[in-house]
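Please check this today:
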Amino acid sequence: MTNKRQMTFEANETVLCFHGPLLYEAKILKTDWRSLDPLDGEEGPVYLVHYRGWKQTWDEWVPESRALKLNDANLAKQQSLKESYPGKKKTVPKTSGSAESSDRGKKRAKDTSVDKEEDFTKRPEIKVPIPDSLKAQLVDEWENITKNQQLVPLPRTPNVVQILEMYKESKKDKKAKNDEIFQEVLAGIKTYFDKCLGNMLLYRFERQQYVDIRKKNTGKEDSEIYGGEHLLRLFVQFPMLIAHTEMDHDSINALRENLVDMLKWMQKNHKELILSEYENASPAYQSIVKS
């Protein structure tokens, strides 16, 4: 009789594991079989993984769909994802100056860099778990845009402003809707989106589309043009963004609770908020991007 609970991976095996839209090396600590989706009762294999070089607090149970065998093909996929995903670090060009001034400032700059790194590691850590179905959306989106050369049709309906309003209205409790922290979080999400979209939320293939759509919508903010697809990318970047703020531990916890709640709401309503099919870019657009 075929074992219906056959596991693809085993304890102590090193794998590549999706965390957000990117792949990271991880070690499987434990294996189990449990419910994957409480809404439809689906069950399947899950694995407790530890990401190499990450703190133990990031250990998590993941479904089999998020793990890949550690081989040359999947390592190449890991590198391809890393190179194409928006938000990767950019090299800061060095400024010209005399050798003397450069030498004088070298030690001071090094000391400042060490101080900043120590301050950063002492800051409260924020973890915003992305629901697995939304992670799958991010992976599919990467393939649609980078491999299939497709685009999210713009402007989107609902756009980010409308999505935030829909989320607000979903709160049955009027007190919750009018809560000061809740209002600040929604305003903060919109502000972060408008400031981050053009800098870190676009794939290279989407940048010409951004230029074109901005020319046609000069009186609108990005949050009035783009929708749930790009908003989801912002949630992936939030841990890094918040780590570079001066927020205290209590504020971070309050923000995290609201972000997690909104992600659950987006998961529940993803068919209404996020496109399942993108549009093919025209030959003319592809030609401009490649030139």
The chain has eleven helices and seven strands.
